[in-house]
Please model this.
Amino acid sequence: MVHISEREVELPDAVIGKLLKVAAEDKSVISLGPGEPDFPAPPPIVEYTKQFADKCNHYSPPGGRKELKEALIKKLKKENGITAHPDNIIVTCGSQEALLLATACTCDVSEQIIIPNPSYLGYLPLFQLFNAFPVPLQLHEKDDWNINPDDLKHLIDPKKTKAIMINTPANPTGNVLSRKLLEEIADLAVQHNLYVFSDEAYEKLVYNKPHVSMASLNGMEKYTVTFQTFSKSYAMCGYRVGYAVGPKLLIEAMTKTHIYTTTAAPTISQMVAAKALSMDPKYTEAMRKEYDQRRKYIVKRLNQMGLPTTTPNGAFYTFSNIKDVMDDSFRFAFQLLKEAKVAVVPGKEFGTYGEGYIRCSYATALPKIETAMDRMEKFVKKYKK
Ligand SMILES: Cc1ncc(COP(=O)(O)O)c(C=O)c1O
Model:
């Protein structure tokens, strides 16, 4: 007997999965799809993992191990300007789980979360899973994919809106929100008594603009849930360790729910993560510099071949306009894969307003990016309207 819940059936199937599967099976394909660093974990991380291998067979306390929370408190103060106590932090299985817990603990059925569109493809299904109502906030290429505070203001329903989702640096656009814009968003959140869910998964991957944490703004610690992770900054995606920082009562509620989802983040990952915070920053900096080189190259090539691409200030993605070639981003991605053996992600995967765009990841070695750009250039020439 097979019975699948309606909730599950209604979850969208990510096309990215199908594309990346084809890309992985066909060795001639160059994938610009990956959403994770192509670097191995830095050598000290590998060493710590070996050191702790025989010391981690017990469950961690649900909220996270003491030494990791202590290290996080220092990191948050120093790097993000956020003051936190142990009961403001929950350590989770990646920041994805923290996003799930925050949604579960803040939104009742049909309550609303405003989410940028296009944005990270993990948000929308997550909110739908809890029957919360995601309200799309359209972002525009002409604004460099920045949030427009006037548009945001008009979407707030005083009775139903519970939270505003922001993502800086952003996936898929590479947008980094300025302090001024964050202040304008903060004013709206305070005025309407809303949470700000601030996803900062790519906080250390910024190029020309500084990363500013929403919770570091005056008074915003009370309103903000900050989501950070070891996945991108330390190339530790497989360790599955992230965390949320927020108001004590909400973190307590999230911790209660966490006991019924995963119980606790893996002990070994937390021990390694605590050590990673004391590691020489040169490892992350070396990755950031390499991404920066690739970023400059890929943005230039995409623009030159006639796919207008705003310069991303953070993360490791470009978001290119393909409307002069094809209107349908799925068709573009599948045709490109079939004919040119290059995998990219259709913009529509990131929301309806992502249609007409494609995402390329530069978490791929430069020589591969060079070949992929040559192949794409021929493809674009052939199909240009
Ligand atoms: C914007 C954003 N937030 C959160 C995540 C989740 O990352 P993790 O669960 O590995 O911390 C991702 C992963 O790609 C992401 O791109």
Notes: The pocket of pyridoxal-5'-phosphate is lined by residues 35, 94-96, 120, 122, 167, 171, 199, 201, 229, 231, 237, 242 (CB under 6 Å). The two ends are 51 Å apart (CA to CA). Residues 6-41+282-383 form a domain with the Aspartate Aminotransferase, domain 1 fold (CATH 3.90.1150.10).
